[in-house]
């Protein structure tokens, strides 16, 4: 069906979208690419397909989103046909709920500076909120979910048994009883980052890394003295660099990428501990430059690279070593989503620095204005990351790692959407983890018969 030349354009697009929503993209990669190359791109290059007038906006927006998700070039100008002379969307678009929803989802694949996509987001968000209660129940539910968190920022699933056994065997939760016991949440993160079944081993290794990071973060945040932290950080940084002298260049790059990721993480943790100990409020720029490192995103991505990459290239290793923008952007989103959820609790614990507090202190604005500024920064960083994925020579990485980096930002949105779903999960956060990892997917009775 994917490559059926007689199938309608919307049928093909819907099928490709359904495959991705079900988390089955890895099983149909070649078929999806063939369909995009042979049917969707050719349509974009001037080949005509018979599309009903009432479906044109939905088809155009769905095509735009799928092509950008898969790294193809497509201009925002495809939406000019739906705009008037004043560069506003035409009145009739307001009554096309399905088309508006598709356009809304497409707007989250925008690049920075794309004014048409900015207008699309504002227009669709406004009118979808107005009409969601008037649409049919199924479409209304899709609209509500989309407004809550768009498709491009969502994640998809796996299982926990092996990790539970490992966690019990090492007994770290009992030995470090001051630290958070967050194995389930750590595994939830790795499922969000790397959902495809063939990367099971990578998920297990990243779960271990994330569990250790959580414990080390608590050592820096709530337990050790400043002198102890400086000793610990120095110990981490005293890995024997001379041991790599006789290694080939590619192995040196591997070692340095791993060495720097551990060293940078502990240095960033220590910097935050010093700010807290000295009651120092950094500038917003100081905080964010340290914060995207301390949030551990680049650290997780360095470890993930060696597990999801079939071929390891010198160019990619150099980009890991230099912390490529793709890693930096997803980590900034991770940090800012975390701060939106945790800043109140951190202030109560006596921690002086978060992006929200630093921005309030520096500019004199209210907390709500500061939070809105952080949300805007998150949107702008998504646009930068979208562009890096699509533009030629934007990165040297293979698709599995690129998707992992994007998924890091997605799982950050998911985890911190309603509060601190990792550090202090409430009932809703725990239910999210439970429903994804423990409860089976329920089927309708008619489907089971």
UniProtKB/TrEMBL annotation:
Protein name per Swiss-Prot or TrEMBL: (+)-delta-cadinene synthase
Pfam family, one: Terpene_synth
Terpene synthase N-terminal domain boundaries: 7-147
Gene3D superfamilies assigned to the protein according to its UniProt record, in alphabetical order: Farnesyl Diphosphate Synthase
Keywords associated with the record: Magnesium, Metal-binding
Tagged with keyword Cell inner membrane: no
Keyword presence, Ribosomal protein: no
InterPro entries per UniProt: Isoprenoid_synthase_dom_sf, Terpene_cyclase_plant_C1, Terpene_synth_N, Terpene_synthase-like, Terpene_synthase_metal-bd, Terpenoid_cyclase/PrenylTrfase
Species this protein is from: Acer yangbiense
Domain Terpene synthase metal-binding: 260-383
Molecular function terms, GO-annotated: magnesium ion binding; terpene synthase activity
BP term (GO), one: diterpenoid biosynthetic process
């Amino acid at each position: 069906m994917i490559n059926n030349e007689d199938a309608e354009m919307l049928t093909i697009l819907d099928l490709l979208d359904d495959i991705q929503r079900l988390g089955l993209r890895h099983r149909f990669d070649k078929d999806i690419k063939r369909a995009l190359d042979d049917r969707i791109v050719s349509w974009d290059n001037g080949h005509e397909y018979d599309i009903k007038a009432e479906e044109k906006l939905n088809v155009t927006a769905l095509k735009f989103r799928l092509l950008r998700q898969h790294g193809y070039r497509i201009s925002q100008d495809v939406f000019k046909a739906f705009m008037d002379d004043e560069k506003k969307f035409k009145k009739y678009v307001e009554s096309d709920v399905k088309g508006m929803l598709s356009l809304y989802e497409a707007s989250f694949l925008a690049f920075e500076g794309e004014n048409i996509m900015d207008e699309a987001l504002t227009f669709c968000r406004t009118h979808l909120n107005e009409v969601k209660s008037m649409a049919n129940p199924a479409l209304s539910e899709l609209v509500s979910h989309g407004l809550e968190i768009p498709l491009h920022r969502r994640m998809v699933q796996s299982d926990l048994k092996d990790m539970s056994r490992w966690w019990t065997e090492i007994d770290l939760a009992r030995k470090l009883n001051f630290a958070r016991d967050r194995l389930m949440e750590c595994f939830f993160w790795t499922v969000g980052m790397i959902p495809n079944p063939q990367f099971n081993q990578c998920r297990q290794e990243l779960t271990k890394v994330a569990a250790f990071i959580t414990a080390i973060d608590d050592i820096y945040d709530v337990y050790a003295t400043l002198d102890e932290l400086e000793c610990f950080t120095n110990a981490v940084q005293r890995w024997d660099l001379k041991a790599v002298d006789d290694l080939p260049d590619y192995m040196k790059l591997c070692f340095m990428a791993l060495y720097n990721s551990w060293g940078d993480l502990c240095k960033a943790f220590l910097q935050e501990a010093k700010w807290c100990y000295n009651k120092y409020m950094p500038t917003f720029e100081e905080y964010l430059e340290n914060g995207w490192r301390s949030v551990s995103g680049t650290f997780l991505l360095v470890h993930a690279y060696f597990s999801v990459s079939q071929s390891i290239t010198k160019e990619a290793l150099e980009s890991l070593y230099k912390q490529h923008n793709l890693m930096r952007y997803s980590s900034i989103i991770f940090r800012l989503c975390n701060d939106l959820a945790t800043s109140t609790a951190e202030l109560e614990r006596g921690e002086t620095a978060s992006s929200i507090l630093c921005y309030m202190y520096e500019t004199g604005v209210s907390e709500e204005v500061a939070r809105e500024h952080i949300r805007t920064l998150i949107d702008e960083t998504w646009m930068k990351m979208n562009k890096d994925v699509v533009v030629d020579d934007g990165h040297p990485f293979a698709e599995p790692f690129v998707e992992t980096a994007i998924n890091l930002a997605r799982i950050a949105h998911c985890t911190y959407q309603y509060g601190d779903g990792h550090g202090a999960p409430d009932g809703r956060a725990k239910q999210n983890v439970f429903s994804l990892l423990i409860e089976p997917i329920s089927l309708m009775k008619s489907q089971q018969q």
